[in-house]
Design a protein that fits this description.
The complex is a heterodimer of chains A (about 375) and B (about 375). With about 375 residues, chain A is an alpha+beta fold. Chain A has helices spanning about 1-15, 50-65, 70-75, 80-85, 85-90, 120-130, 130-135, 220-230, 240-245, 255-265, 270-280, 340-365; strands at about 20-30, 35-40, 40-45, 90-100, 105-115, 140-155, 160-170, 175-180, 185-190, 195-205, 210-215, 235-240, 285-295, 300, 305-320, 325-340. In chain A, about 35% of the residues lie in helices and about 40% in strands. In chain A, strand 4 and strand 5 form a beta hairpin. In chain A, helix 3 runs parallel beside helix 12 (about 340-365) and helix 8 packs parallel to helix 12. Chain B has about 375 residues and is α+β, with helices and mostly antiparallel strands. Helices cover about 35% and strands about 30% of the residues of chain B. Chain B has eleven helices and twelve strands. Chain B has helices at about 1-20, 45-50, 50-55, 65-75, 155-165, 175-180, 205, 215-235, 330-350, 355-360, 365-380, and strands spanning about 30-40, 85, 95-110, 115-130, 135-150, 195-200, 245, 250-255, 260-265, 270-285, 285-300, 305-320. In chain B, the strands form two sheets. In chain B, strands 1, 2, 3, 4, 5, 7, 8 and 9 form an eight-stranded mixed sheet that branches. A four-stranded mixed sheet of chain B has the order 6-10-11-12. In chain B, helix 8 packs parallel to helix 9 (about 330-350). Classes of the chains: A alpha+beta (about 375), B alpha+beta (about 375). Chains A and B meet through helix 1, strand 1, strand 4 and strand 5 of A and strand 1 and strand 8 of B.
Chain lengths: ~375, ~375
Amino acid sequence: MKLYQYLLIITFTFVSAASATTVSHKGFGVILYEPVYDLILDEIPAGTEDKAAEVGIENAWKRYVATFSSDRRNAARIIMQDLNDKKDQFIIDKRITATKVDKDNKKFTSAVRIEIDDTAVEKFILDQTLKGDEKLDNNTITWLFITRGQESIKSFDDRIVRINSNKSEGLNSESQTYTESDTNIEASAQNSQNTYTKNEAGGSTIKKSDTIIRKILSSKEIDSSMRETLVNAGYEGYMYGQIAAEPECGAKKSIEEIREEFASSVDISSETQRDITKTAKRCDMNYTAIGTLDVLPAKISKSGNTQVNVSVTAQVFITSGRFARNIASVGPVVYAAEGVTEEIARFNALRAAGKAATTTIINQLRSR
Amino acid sequence: MLFSIFNKNLLLIFLALLQFNPVIASDKPSLSWAGFAFLGDFDQRNTRYPYTSEIALDSKNQQSPIDETISTLVSNFNSKNFQLDTSMAKNSNNLFAGLGIAYEDIYKIKTGSRYKVSYEVGLNFMVFDFQEKKIVAIYPMKFLRNEMYDKDPTKEEHKKIFKNLYTGNEFNILKESLKRIADVKIKETIGNYLGISHIEFTKDSKKYVINSLEIDPIKTHIAQEFEGLLSVNNQVPLIPYTKGEIIGKDMAVRFSDREQMTFSLPDTDYNISILIRGFDFKVAKHHYGYTVKITISASDDLHPRLVELNLSKNIWILKRGSGNVKDELSQWIVYKEALSILLKELTQQINNIDKTWLKEHSTNKDAALQVQSLKKLISKSK
């Protein structure tokens, strides 16, 4: 139908344009005024409402800044004054929602709502916090992110062991009988005397973790979203596949071998990690990011859409020195996204996770 | 050869037409038409809009009867305030419009040997920003059609009525929706927003609501009815009340071609609450009197009690038309009718204050001032 066609056209139209995310926040501004007397009536001086609105905008902006994640706040710390001074660039709409006059206390209050271009703020922070050495072209970064899905999950029933014991004490002879099956052990005791009787009940439950067989999925969504975010932040980004394919970089393991390793185990071996960081160093990469995105099974959300969650874990190494040093890490953090189909939901979740993980990495690099 | 020249000429004429196709300049805002939609959790369609969903999702035809009707209506849409485009040609601001169903209801009352059945449909005209996935404005509308039956109507008869409401010529709610919205100056940008935030029954008034009916759906229904009347009579968009439609600050919208999207809703700046204070029953020689008492409250960010307006309405019904007074359901329907009339008259008062009406229906001495305050909130939300 119509909408589907529109969506396609819009997708093409905006495919290269970064979509803006706006957020709105409210603030209150209070101004104490000196009344102007017009005959016998005391009037509020002209401009009081504007002044109160300005204070309201200032407070709404403060509320917005207070919502920054710790990574973003740390990265923005050194440029916060500059960001605050330039806030008008990022406020795309401001509206007074209510005003109140307290004539007894000569107080004028304005409630203001502002709409902020959060994407532009993010870009500003990333641009302004480029480190000195990064500005001198020492801003190369390579990344290897593996996307894994769950091919199959083997779940095990709990192994439950119950023991019921009935003991009587007091005399010399005591006999106990036990019966045991696969999941149940029963014990009983009999005694010839009736002096003392004790009942005991117990057991144990053994839970065995699910065995998950993973499959490697395409990483093109995260690669493109990482590249976009890194380029916007002023980095020169290379996918690790490009580096590993260059003979002069001397990679011992091919990208396919590394992917296989990620598929068969939770994490890669320290030997593989060392190979990646050494390869990156040999080809003058200042930073190397290694991570996994685990796509969790899809479910139907309350809105009726399919929802996919993606769990992200990543580590960033500085590879310019003699030894690679871990300087930043992400997660595990779960990102969720919805879509009409599972494929669209997964695409959306991977893009969101890729963008968020890269932003966190950059913010951590900037706040070092 | 001749054929090839002829073809070439045709191509040139076609290109020339493309080149010089006149563009009609217009200052009217343009909205791209997105289609008919289901609002809220689509899994709840069997309780929220069973007949409409059955008609709209009729898979026998490529296009559902509802889509077919609305496509024709949109192509012929004419408004002095805005345009509805069925093409993407000049939609520079990404604004889309759609008509969504929020709910449908059937009320049945037995009067003598006959059945009076009311069919109610709540439709929302939505304006949304596709790029930002945000709702810009929602104009709720409510439609009611009454039918008399000699015997208890079947499901098939209900479906026939609903289908007529959507596709018939007599009282077509799609046509009526577009007719109503054509007169509205559409809100094109994010602004200040009004919404019904709360509705409550006092303990005393709850007694009148039949036990078999759950109170929450009734509250939702009244709030939706009020926002529909408020919107239509004052041409103001509102943030919808329904809990099922909104999850957090998001609203799920599923178009009848199965495209599903989630849009974020703005926060309300102005909130209206309804308190149902009580009901009264009066007996006259030939009539029964049904009274409803309510309080309408409104607040903004700085005034939690900007409006607190007590209102009441009594309707006199011929005894023989009131149904069985011992039948709780039929009596509740009459009380509900009194409430609907009161809400309708109040929303009309906001636009055109009549002090005599206020004196008759409100105990507040400053009722006119309070209605004026409501009017100001509505003006700020347009």
